[in-house]
Design a protein that fits this description.
Aldehyde Dehydrogenase, Chain A, domain 2, Aldehyde Dehydrogenase, Chain A, domain 1, aldehyde dehydrogenase (NAD+) activity, alpha/beta, ALDH7A1-like, six-stranded mixed β-sheet, 23 strands, single chain, NAD, about 20% strand, binds 2-aminohexanedioic acid, 15 helices
């Protein structure tokens, strides 16, 4: 257990804190506006209050971010990387404190909260290194004495809208790449998890102050969506990166897409399946499915929600899963022994209960868990449901809760059809020791998802890879690989150094 007050004071989080910030010394005021509560999902208590960002706060943030972009875009990219690197260093210095804030906000276990802070630190290292490698190709011109290459230039102001489940890592994956690309960043986190954003903004402020910048990283946390929508609709924002449900993602795409020239990047719902064939190491499969399903209390967009298992090994796998589910310690996230904490709020418990009762009504059998745990806070049992049909609405829909549906298959082709037969397309997995089966799953007629894992769980994407998915997941990519290109614009350059004027398409005058 940590001391909450000590953690809050480590990050200068007052009992009522400003909900917007333009940079060092740029916090909004608190006395003249209503404040909303940051509620600890572990016990329902109020940790602190945040004076929700107003329209005026938003405008101040946007004016600063827009003005700063004019300067930041001309700062050499490796220098931009140094700012990101410094933020990573500060996060490492405050590692335990930041993890505690993430746990207080989300209810995820300290173990997982530390994992999330680790991901932020790693992402800072990746982005700082990437800042020296914003490569463009050099091409061969078909004209004599011409040089041709492409270069990558900043977009402008990048707006980041992040969900409650990863209040630090998702911002880092987007914001650090945006910043090294010469963009300034306006962050709108979920009001369910304001403390992590406040803590990180304080660290950003320290780093910006040390290096003589302001407004590279800015923040506004409105209580409701009205002010948040201003960011989505604002023509001064070049790119909106949105993480959240497909329903809201669709609205973001509609609004941003209605102005040509603005961009959106979506990381929306997942409904991640794991195929287990008859040659799989079932012990390994049970372990990775358990972590994938119950980790972060099933509140990851990459959580394993569907297990598609070869009929011959289904009973054995279900027994192993029951055994490993039984070992999961659900409890207060502040307790270091806890593996799985509560759901984020009462509404999430309601969604859990509705999904379980829909599955039972349709004919599913709850073979583990299925109920809320009666204690203060929003705790539910890790839940395993068998005898499920792939087309049931509860199976087709993403419920942010630790529920895994088990379905049997006979042929791998059928398994892939079930696997791909959902609207979402984020993460996927196969457990197998049959090379042909693995390669079929990875082929053009295999998994239709953005992420495919072999003999691994669907969660815990390696930041070195591009992160994102297809179909209703939205098509965006962030984190590693060449995802940095999504935060920059490509310019194809052609230079005539020969002093003559050769026309294209071999036209000679
Ligand atoms: C999310 O759940 O919205 O790979 C994104 C993972 C996490 C997912 C974060 N990095 O499981």
């Amino acid at each position: 257990m940590f001391d909450t007050q000590q953690v809050l004071s480590e990050f200068h989080i007052q009992s009522v804190h400003g909900g917007a910030c333009t940079g060092p010394d740029g916090w909004s005021t608190t006395h003249d506006r209503s404040a909303f509560a940051a509620i600890n999902p572990a016990d329902g208590t109020v940790t602190a209050r945040v004076a929700g960002a107003t329209e005026q706060d938003y405008e101040a943030v946007m004016v600063t971010a827009s003005a700063m972009h004019m300067r930041w875009r001309m700062v050499p990219a490796p220098r931009r990387g140094e700012l990101v690197s410094r933020i990573g260093e500060l996060a490492a210095e405050h590692f335990d404190g930041l993890a505690a804030v993430v746990a207080l906000d989300t209810g995820k276990s300290l173990m997982e909260a530390k994992g999330e802070v680790r991901e932020l630190i790693d992402m800072a290292a990746l982005a700082a290194g990437q800042s020296r490698m914003l490569y463009g190709f050099t091409q061969q011109s078909q004209r004599a004495k011409h040089r041709m290459y492409d270069q990558w230039l900043p977009l402008g102001v990048v707006g980041i809208i992040s969900a409650y489940n990863f209040p630090a890592a998702v911002w880092a994956q987007n914001g650090f790449l945006a910043a090294i690309g010469g963009n300034t960043v306006v962050w709108k986190p979920s009001p369910k998890v304001p403390l992590t954003a406040l803590a990180l903004q304080h660290l950003c402020n320290q780093a910006m102050k040390e290096m003589g910048f302001e407004g590279v990283f800015t923040l506004f946390i409105p209580e409701d969506n009205r002010v948040a929508e201003m960011l989505v609709a604002d023509p001064r924002v070049a790119l909106i990166s949105f993480t959240g449900s497909s329903g809201v993602g669709r609205k973001v795409a509609d609004i941003v897409g209605s102005t040509l020239g603005r961009r959106y990047m979506l990381e929306c719902s997942g409904n991640n399946g794991c195929i287990v064939d008859e040659t799989a190491d079932l012990e390994l499969a049970a372990r990775s499915i358990t972590f994938g399903a119950v980790g972060t209390t099933g509140q990851r967009c990459t959580s394993t929600r569907r297990v598609i298992v070869q009929r011959a090994v289904m009973d054995e796998l279900v027994e192993l899963l029951k055994r490993s589910f039984a070992q999961i310690k659900v409890g207060d996230p502040r307790d270091v022994e806890t593996v799985v904490g509560p759901l984020v709020d009462a509404a999430a418990v309601g969604h859990f209960e509705a999904a379980v009762s829909d599955a039972i009504a349709a004919g599913g059998q709850v073979v583990f868990g299925g109920k809320r745990i009666s204690r203060p806070g929003h705790y539910v049992e890790p839940t395993l449901i068998t005898h499920v049909q792939p087309e049931w609405p509860c199976v087709q829909h993403e419920t942010f809760a630790p529920i895994v549906y088990v379905m049997a298959y006979d042929t791998l082709e059928e398994a892939i059809e079930i696997h791909n037969g959902v609207p979402q397309g984020l993460a996927s997995g196969i457990h197998s020791s049959n090379l042909g089966n693995i390669e079929l799953f990875l082929s053009a007629q295999g998994s239709d998802c953005g992420i495919a894992k072999v003999n691994m769980g669907t969660t815990g994407a390696d930041i070195g890879a591009a992160f994102g998915g297809e179909k209703e997941t939205g098509g965006g990519r962030t984190a590693g690989s060449d995802a940095w290109k999504g935060y920059m614009r490509r310019q194809s350059v052609c230079i005539n150094w020969g002093g003559t004027s050769p026309w294209d398409q071999r036209i000679i005058l």
